[in-house]
Design goal:
The protein is α+β, with helices and mostly antiparallel strands. The protein has helices at 24-36, 91-95, 125-143, 147-157, and strands spanning 3-6, 12-15, 38-43, 50-56, 62-66, 75-77, 81-86, 106-111, 116-121. A hairpin with a 5-residue loop joins strand 1 and strand 2 (12-15). This is PH domain-containing protein.
Length: 162
């Protein structure tokens, strides 16, 4: 679960898996912040960026944002996430190479069958870290081969009577 990565200076650095360092309390705090919502700049090709309120839905199954003209389409399901990267490494960020964004406040969510990117900038590094940690946690839960199917089966087999 841990690995070696290359830091900004090009030096190898040992990095523990993010779940190793995150207690249940920390992850739940991330979930709470994400469900409350965070104003972020959504970077798009050919524009300066759009300020939107991003939040995790009540079921923790979708990232949503508002305002949006597309309303119901303004969402990305957690099970469609491919990876979350820290910093301003995506093509969209490289096109905005004027350096106006602090890389510590930037992250990219890759999703969908065509590896689309959602490039976001937060107002501070802690907000970016919270979202990165929370999304990776949610992805790890879904990538557990059959955990989603198992949860659904358990729910279907043992209905609760109120």
């Amino acid at each position: 679960m841990s690995s070696w990565v290359v830091n900004r200076k090009g030096e190898p650095q040992y990095r523990r898996h993010f779940l190793t360092d995150n207690s249940t309390f920390h992850v739940e705090r991330c979930m709470g912040v994400m469900q409350s919502g965070t104003q972020m700049v959504k970077i798009k090709a050919g524009s300066k960026g759009l300020v939107r309120l991003f939040y995790l839905d009540d079921h923790r199954s979708c990232i949503r944002w508002k305002p949006s003209r597309k309303s119901e389409k303004a969402k990305i399901t957690i099970d469609s996430l491919y990876k979350v990267t820290e910093g301003s490494q995506s093509d969209i960020f490289h096109r905005h190479a004027d350096g106006s964004f602090d890389p510590a406040c930037c992250f990219t969510v890759y999703h969908g069958n065509h590896m689309e990117s959602l490039d976001l900038v937060t107002s501070n590094a802690e907000e970016a870290r919270t979202w990165i940690t929370g999304l990776r946690y949610l992805m790890a839960g879904i990538s557990d081969e059959d955990s989603l199917a198992k949860r659904q089966r358990t729910h279907d087999q043992y209905p609760f009577n109120n």
